[in-house]
Amino acid sequence: MSTLTTLIHFSPQGSTYKIGNELVQGLGFPLNESVDLTDPKLAPKNITRNQMAIFTVPVYSGRIPALAAERIKKLRGDSTPCVLLAVYGNRDFDDALLELYGLVKEQGFEPIGAGAFIAEHTFSHQIGTDRPDLSDLEQVTLFAKKVLKQFEDKKILAKENLPGNIPYKEASKASIVPLVKDSCVACGLCAQKCPAEAIPESNYKETILEKCILCARCIQICPTKSRFLPQPFLDKVQEMLTKTATERKEPEFFF
Questions:
Q1: 48-69: average pLDDT
Q2: Of 30, 145, 163, which Cα lies nearest the Cα of 100?
Q3: pTM, entire model
Q4: How far, in whole angstroms, is CA 129 from its chain's centroid?
Q5: Euclidean distance between CA atoms 145 and 218, whole angstroms
Q6: Cβ-based neighbours of 174, under 8 Å, separated by 6 or more
Q7: How far, rounded to the nearest angstrom, does the alpha carbon of residue 166 sit from its chain's CA centroid?
Q8: Does pLDDT of 172 surpass 90?
């Protein structure tokens, strides 16, 4: 039976999906299914061992999004080989790959390789600008070749080969939410596409703090550019990133 790929992605901004899809192309196996973890209505799924699952998630303050982790728990493998991708905004991926490794192992998947890749930072277009760029995508192709060799040799990824610490970094929680300008036309697109269902259909100008994960999808997709983050918050993030994330980081592979 030929190997298929299943792409499992949590990508509110699209960059994380782009890298995962590029890996699918590089591996060359037929795509069986694309599983969107941002879908609140995601149904439980079994992913059989004749497939290669690709888990691709963004990094939020050194961790994988709690919402992505919650939805990965709806997926069940059968010693299914998998590849782990963490996509971060040029600062650091900290414990994200280690956390993802432990999570998918619990769900019956067998990691054979992992990669950390860079995308433009969600809150600062000056950090990781226009990434993933051509060089990044070339690195995905190289990574795919290494994954194929690992798969052919029936090798698995040892947990000890991944950077990170246990216990993991404390997960961050949203302390602010996107604001809304008077130009909002209440089209409802933000509520329809919010991964966390944090925007009530009864009031599109409201965002529920306890649910919001600050993925900024609503800001990105708003047709009237009416949603935005408070400038003091953006200034604080920019100041921090200027100190820690201005030097270009390159993709890293782990086998």
A1: 97
A2: 163
A3: 0.96
A4: 17
A5: 36
A6: 209, 212, 213, 214
A7: 20
A8: no
Q: Which residues contact 153 (CB under 8 A, 6 or more apart)?
A: none
24 three-class SS:
helix
pLDDT tens readout for residues 12-56: 999 999 999 999 999 999 999 999 999 999 999 999 999 999 999
Name the token pair of 93.
Answer: 């991926």
What Å distances lie between residue 48 and 70, 114, 172, 182, 198, CA to CA?
Answer: 20, 20, 34, 49, 33
Residue 89 DSSP SS3: coil
- A 10 A CB-CB count for 191 gives 19
Give the model confidence (pLDDT) of 78-135 as tens digits.
999 999 999 999 999 999 999 999 999 999 999 999 999 999 999 999 999 999 999 9
Q: Are 89 and 121 in contact (CB under 8 A)?
A: yes
List, in order, residues 6 or more apart from 131 with CB less than 8 Å away. Answer: 15, 90, 118, 119, 120
The answer to whether the CB of 68 falls within 8 A of the CB of 87 is: no
Own/partner pairs, 68-73, CB within 8 angstroms, 24+ separation: 68/10, 68/37, 69/99, 69/103, 71/10, 71/37, 71/39, 71/42, 72/8, 72/37, 72/103, 72/104, 72/107, 73/103, 73/107
Task: Give the type of residue at 126.
Answer: Q
The Cα–Cα gap between 169 and 147 comes to 28
Q: Is 9 within 8 Å of 35 (Cβ atoms)?
A: yes
Average model confidence (pLDDT) across the chain: 96
